[in-house]
Specification:
Layout (H helix, E strand, L loop, with lengths): L2 H30 L14 H25 L5 H27 L3 H25 L1 H27 L18
Helix pairs in contact: 1-2, 1-3, 2-3, 2-5, 3-4, 4-5
Length: 177
């Protein structure tokens, strides 16, 4: 391997973690305050779980994009270009989800965004696998994680609660017979 191969790895990993940093910056303040005070649907993991999950996904996305880039000379350049465009779109949609869900408190828009992200991840998995099976295989956990986040986002939206602090709900009153 040549030095520029490692430079490409560093660049693609760096882009993955840059997207993660942007997503974190969009979410950080709201997670620290607003998010912790919300009534939540059942079985919602604690906020750090999302950070750990996405960190692992960024490593997998960066590594798979690098493997696709390495395979470029052996496959059609158009296919590699499409694969890398899908990689960049996945990263952008992830940052957008954080901005919508946490920054703007728009769970419905966030659920729609992560559903699109799941479709883009599926398309990337197919394209990456057509270039080389290994980068496609690395996207399987990303697809599963994105699906999990999509389900959680949909659950938040369907939960029907206000985005505000938890408040005691008054007990229902019964009419006297």
């Amino acid at each position: 391997m040549k030095a520029y191969h490692f430079a490409a790895l560093a660049a693609l990993m760096g882009l993955s973690f840059l997207a993660g940093g942007i997503a974190t910056a969009l979410a950080r303040q709201r997670v620290e305050g607003w998010y912790r005070t919300l009534t939540r649907p059942e079985k919602v993991p604690p906020p750090p779980a999302y950070g750990w999950g996405w960190s692992a996904m960024y490593v997998l996305m960066g590594a798979s994009a690098w493997l696709v880039w390495l395979a470029g000379p052996q496959w059609s350049v158009a296919m590699v270009r499409l694969a890398l465009i899908l990689y960049f779109v996945m990263l952008g949609l992830n940052a957008l989800w954080s901005g919508l869900f946490f920054g703007l408190a728009r769970p419905r828009a966030a659920a729609a965004t992560v559903a699109v992200q799941w479709l883009v991840t599926l398309a990337a998995l197919i394209v990456f696998s057509n270039i080389w099976i290994l980068p496609g295989a690395l996207l399987v956990p990303v697809l599963l994680w994105t699906g999990y986040v999509a389900i959680r986002s949909y659950t938040w939206w369907r939960h029907g609660r206000r985005f505000g602090p938890m408040e005691a709900q008054p007990a229902p009153t019964r009419l006297a017979a």
